[in-house]
Design goal:
By secondary structure, the protein is α/β, with parallel strands linked by helices. The protein has a single domain (7-235), classed as Purple Acid Phosphatase, chain A, domain 2, CATH 3.60.21. It contains five helices and 17 strands. The protein has a seven-stranded mixed β-sheet with strand order 1-2-3-4-5-6-7, covered by helices on one side. It has a seven-stranded mixed β-sheet with strand order 8-9-10-14-13-16-17, with no helix packed on it. It has a three-stranded mixed β-sheet with strand order 12-11-15, with no helix packed on it. Strand 2 and strand 3 (24-29) form a beta hairpin. Helix 2 (59-74) runs parallel beside helix 4 (97-109). The longest helix has 16 residues, at 59-74. The model has no long low-confidence stretch (mean pLDDT 88).
Length: 238
């Protein structure tokens, strides 16, 4: 199971950051027994190959193996994917046989809900699961892109946040979650990108901070050793 030291409060409930491959990659919601992942970008390599940039065609396998590991680690019985599940809406049609079999097995094993994103707004559930644009679960909105001005608790993806810090003259970049708090107590969180071929945006980038407004504070959360570290990114001076 995930170490309890990676547990943190969010909007009156407890959540757990799941450490994988150089930072936090997934979120576990014990109260819903659900795993949340964002920005899988499955079949990104095959998309680029169509346009003449050849990449090793195994990104979908690696990403799905990571999802399976996170399910085993947490014991989740439900998976919510927060958009950009495929790199384009036709990605599910390009899955090679092995990756397609892996995905079909995962969607049979758990209750799987695809939330669509800007890359795959017209995707179909070719390998099982349910497709929705957004969803509200236990009073928390699940969507792909954070909605500025949202007053309800919200979980989203899209920005691929990475924390950049300098420690002992070394610059370190780690995938992280970005969490905001507001006066009405409705926190909002942007999850890191989960896919094997996803890059990252500085967690303190103005675009990320703007997407979470209005906010009293914005912090980056990242596993550091056996603890969960919190780094301040924004404080309302008013």
């Amino acid at each position: 199971m995930v170490p309890l030291s990676f547990t943190f409060p969010f909007c009156g409930d407890e959540f757990v950051l799941v450490p994988q491959h150089g930072g936090a990659k997934a979120l576990f919601w014990p109260g819903e027994n659900a795993l949340l992942v964002a920005d899988l970008h499955l079949e990104k390599a095959s998309f680029y190959a169509r346009h003449g940039q050849m990449l090793p065609p195994y990104d979908s396998r690696e990403t799905l193996e990571r999802v399976a590991d996170a399910i085993r680690l947490t014991g989740a019985r439900r998976v919510y994917t927060l958009g950009d599940n495929f790199h384009d809406s036709d990605g599910s049609q390009r899955l090679e046989e092995h990756a397609a079999g892996m995905l079909a097995a995962l969607t049979r094993a758990v209750d799987w809900v695809w939330i669509t994103g800007n890359h795959d707004s017209e995707m179909e559930a070719k390998s099982g699961g349910t497709v929705v644009e957004e969803l509200e679960v236990g009073g928390t909105v699940l969507r792909h892109i954070a909605k500025p001005g949202e007053t309800r608790p919200e979980l989203s993806g899209h920005f691929h946040p990475k924390l950049q810090v300098e420690i002992r003259n070394r610059r370190i970049r780690r995938a992280c979650a970005v969490v905001s708090s507001s006066e009405n107590g409705a926190g909002r969180m942007i999850l890191p990108a989960f896919g094997a071929l996803t890059g990252g945006m500085d967690a303190a980038d103005p675009a990320i901070l703007a997407a979470l407004q209005p906010a009293n504070s914005v912090d980056a959360l990242v596993p550091a050793g056996k603890k969960l570290a919190r780094f301040p990114l924004y404080r309302n001076a008013a």
